[in-house]
């Protein structure tokens, strides 16, 4: 399935569902002018570990002095916590024995040793690294206005950023490192697919049925 243009939120090492949509779209538009919402994939990603699913969450600075909502592109990271160090350690422990972690390790480690001030800058850096590892080239731009009701040829997929009560997107299963312990864990971070499937990850994404993801918009 090929779609022309998708409107989607940037997130932290986004779920497989996001990258399946991006792999099958001609153009990707990232929403930057929405109001920041808590408890979403903007600041969290889910990985598989020996103990089960683990959620990694980025701490942000909350705007306590203003009654106005923060826009996505304004959100700042709370770097007084060693969250990058902790996240990288978690990723290494979880995936160091996966088939392709060592192959991609040098690409991802700089993301966790470089200091970023804004959430959107860190998320974009993660996205660019992931796209490079997938060898997936797409035109990606950011919104310059807020589209309340996007019109064709733009497909609104902003709902995918919600991490609570996530629908079953009917994603095909692939080999996961701890499947024998916890069963198959669906729609984890794209990193899980990449570290387990390596170069086969792009073919997987290009063959996902997007109908359930698009249907959630209606």
TrEMBL record:
<dbReference type="InterPro" id="IPR014985">
    <property type="entry name" value="WbqC"/>
</dbReference>
<dbReference type="Pfam" id="PF08889">
    <property type="entry name" value="WbqC"/>
</dbReference>
<protein>
    <submittedName>
        <fullName>WbqC-like protein family protein</fullName>
    </submittedName>
</protein>
């Amino acid at each position: 399935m090929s779609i022309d243009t998708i409107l989607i939120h940037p997130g932290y090492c986004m779920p497989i569902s996001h990258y399946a949509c991006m792999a099958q779209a001609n153009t990707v538009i990232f929403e930057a002018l929405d109001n920041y919402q808590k408890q979403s994939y903007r600041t969290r990603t889910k990985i598989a570990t020996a103990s089960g699913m683990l959620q990694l969450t980025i701490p942000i600075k909350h705007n306590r002095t203003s009654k106005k909502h923060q826009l996505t592109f304004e959100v700042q990271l709370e770097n007084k916590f060693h969250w990058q160090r902790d996240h990288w350690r978690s990723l290494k422990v979880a995936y160091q024995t996966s088939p392709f972690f060592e192959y991609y390790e040098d690409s991802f480690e700089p993301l966790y040793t470089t200091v970023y001030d804004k959430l959107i800058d860190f998320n974009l850096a993660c996205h660019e690294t992931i796209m490079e590892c997938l060898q997936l080239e797409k035109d990606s731009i950011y919104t310059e206005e807020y589209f309340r009701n996007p019109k064709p040829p733009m497909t609104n997929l902003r709902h995918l950023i919600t991490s609570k009560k996530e629908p079953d997107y009917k994603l095909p299963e692939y080999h996961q490192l701890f499947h024998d312990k916890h069963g198959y864990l669906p729609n984890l971070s794209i990193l899980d697919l990449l570290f387990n499937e390596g170069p086969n990850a792009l073919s997987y994404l290009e063959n996902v049925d997007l109908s359930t993801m698009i249907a959630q918009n209606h």
